[in-house]
Design goal:
The chain is mainly β and about 140 residues long. Helix content is about 0%, strand content about 35%. A four-stranded mixed sheet has the order 4-3-7-8, with no helix packed on it. Strands 1-5 form a two-stranded antiparallel sheet. It has a two-stranded parallel ribbon with strand order 2-6. The chain starts with 5 loop residues before the first strand and ends in a 5-residue tail after the last strand. The N terminus is likely disordered.
Length: about 140
């Protein structure tokens, strides 16, 4: 089967009867790109099964962000996930399942801008600022 992007909500389809959907694309202008990503959850259904997954601005995957060398990229991540059960569990089990963060794989940016230890708990937000180098 083919993996294809889905819009949030209950969808009954399969890769055989749905064309690929074009992802939303947000493009930098004048050396800047500011975007808000709301992290949520939605149920998706295929003929064989239904599942819950994370969505970004209501879709999975989230929008494509297009930047060029020299762009300043600002992403506000808003965690709208439920705080319920966020801290339950033993220390050696998964914990804070509804906390999130953002990591810029493939962007050659400063580790001070791309802090993988940042934690955004339910109901919180965080603004990431990346300066895409001119040599990127």
């Amino acid at each position: 089967s083919v993996v294809f992007p889905l819009a949030a909500g209950k969808i009954l389809a399969s890769s055989r009867d749905l064309p690929l959907r074009q992802l939303e694309e947000v493009v930098a202008a004048n050396g800047q790109l500011r975007v808000r990503l709301e992290v949520g959850v939605a149920e998706f259904c295929l003929p064989e099964t239904c599942f819950w997954t994370r969505v970004y601005n209501g879709t999975s995957p989230g929008p494509t962000l297009r930047v060029t060398p020299g762009t300043t990229l600002e992403i506000e991540v808003v965690n709208t996930l439920s705080p319920k059960d966020n801290d339950k569990g033993r220390v050696d089990n998964f914990r804070r399942l509804n906390s999130t963060n953002l990591h810029a794989h493939g962007l050659h940016v400063s580790p001070y801008e791309d802090d993988v230890a940042t934690r955004i708990d339910p109901g919180e937000s965080h603004v990431y600022r990346y300066h895409v180098p001119l040599f990127h």
